[in-house]
Amino acid sequence: MKRIGVLTSGGDTPGMNAAIRAVLKIGIHYGYAVMGVYHGYNGLIDGRIHQLQHSDVDNMIHKGGTLLRTARCEAFKTEEGVQKALKVIRAYNLEGIVVIGGDGSARGAQVLHQKGVPTMLLPGTIDNDMGFTDYTIGFDTASNSVMTEIYKIRDTMRSHDRVGVLEVMGRSSGDIALRAGLAGGADIVLVPEKKQDWSAAADHLVANKLKGKLTSIVIMAEGAGSADDFKLFVRNNTDVDIRSIVLGYIQRGGQPTAFDRVLATRLGARAVELLNEGSSGRAIGMRKNAIIDMDIDEALAMPPQFDMSLLELNEILAKF
Ligand code: ADP
Ligand code: F6P
After folding, report:
1. Which end of the chain has fewer surrounding CB within 10 Å, N or C?
2. Most ligand 2 atoms within 8 A of CB, residue of 12, 107, 169 to mutate
3. Quick check: CB of 125 below 6 Å from ligand 1?
4. Is residue 190 a contact partner of residue 166, using CB atoms and an 8 Å limit?
5. Ligand 1 pocket check for 128: Cβ under 6 Å
């Protein structure tokens, strides 16, 4: 029986399980045995590989995290590590591999393709920092989780007439901050994509206070700075009462949204179709609600998209 492998690598995201499920079911549909590769590229190097069964993905579409586990694997960045992985791939007769992960994992997928292993890349990261696709798997869930937390923080800040600054994930991308901030009615959104003056932000908070708006919410993308530093800056320069919150891993876990489940399912299904057609080195994404695939080198050369007009819209909304 023909065999393909599937692995998750880098930070986990809600929706990875939905993608694995789709790869397994569509794989079976095309007559493949689908092999789960555990702990990212480590599993390819050490042969942590087991055939997936229906029971592995049963009741999994709604679960966050990844049933294959994930990892960061320094060894796979070396030629020695890659050679070990190629041996394992040959030993297991894997005719294709689906990699689900972010930008770094995509570089690994690129290497596999260059070495002649038919490889497909699915974008899986909450950061939404992959330019070839409008959305990465997990971003919608993470931004919804942040939005929900904003309202909990807002309740307590409002009760005390305080300002809350929430630090959110995203690495060097401000997309989670922007989307959750816009959806959560944040007064200020600080992102790495735009140089923003903290003095102007502090002045905005003071102006809000003077006009009687005692509670403001500031969203700080981790790539733009730390919520604690911003809190200290505001405390040192104004009389605004401010608290900082680092949201952390709660924004990376939890049930995937319908959007992420459907996205992951469509991407996973397309990956298997493409392998079955004999393609390799394709990055699969979604643009304008259509599933697209493109050359992985071209895809990785595309800079992350950031919708500056949404940030400007939020700035106008926050004036009134
Ligand atoms: P993400 O995929 O979420 O961006 P990382 O950047 O940590 O996460 O990358 C995940 C893994 O991808 C790394 O630990 C490594 O195993 C693999 N990887 C990253 N860069 C390369 C590279 N240049 N060559 C081969 N593998 C890589
Ligand atoms: O790339 C996903 C991400 O959650 C980033 O938003 C964050 O900066 C990073 O991973 C955290 O990584 P770790 O899991 O190593 O703490």
Report:
1. C
2. 169
3. yes
4. no
5. no
Residues 41, 85: Cα–Cα separation, whole Å: 8
State the total domains in the chain: 2
Using DSSP bridges, classify how beta strands 49-51 and 32-37 pair: parallel, antiparallel or unpaired: antiparallel
Query: What are the tens digits of pLDDT across the range 250-281?
Result: 999 999 999 999 999 999 999 999 999 999 99
Tokens of 13: 């995201």
pLDDT digits (tens, 9 = 90+) for 96-126: 999 999 999 999 999 999 999 999 999 999 9
User: Which of 143, 247, 252 best tests ligand 2's pocket when mutated (most atoms within 8 Å of CB)?
Assistant: 252
Atom of ligand 2 nearest to the CA of 72: 15
Tell whether 127 and 33 lie within a shared domain: yes
Active site residues: 127
The protein residue with its alpha carbon nearest to ligand 2, atom 15, reads 11
- 275 neighbors 5 (Cβ within 8 angstroms): no
- Within a domain: 234: yes
Overall average pLDDT of the 186-208 stretch = 97
Q: Residues 156-179: pLDDT tens digits?
A: 999 999 999 999 999 999 999 999
**Distance, CA of 129 to CA of 126 (rounded, Å):** 8
Domain co-membership, 239 together with 280: no
Q: What is the pTM (predicted TM-score) of this model?
A: 0.97
Same-domain status, 7 and 84: yes
Tell the residue nearest (CA) to atom 16 of ligand 1.
73
Supply the range of the domain harboring residue 145.
141-253
283 lines ligand 1 (CB under 6 A): no
Residue 316 falls within a domain, yes or no? no
Q: Is the CB of 9 under 6 A from ligand 1?
A: yes
Q: Which residues pair with 6 in a beta bridge?
A: 36, 98
Q: If we measure between CA atoms, which residue out of 250, 261, 253, 259 comes closest to residue 60?
A: 261
Q: What pLDDT is recorded for position 297?
A: 98
Query: Based on the domain organization, do 260 and 247 belong to the same domain?
Result: no
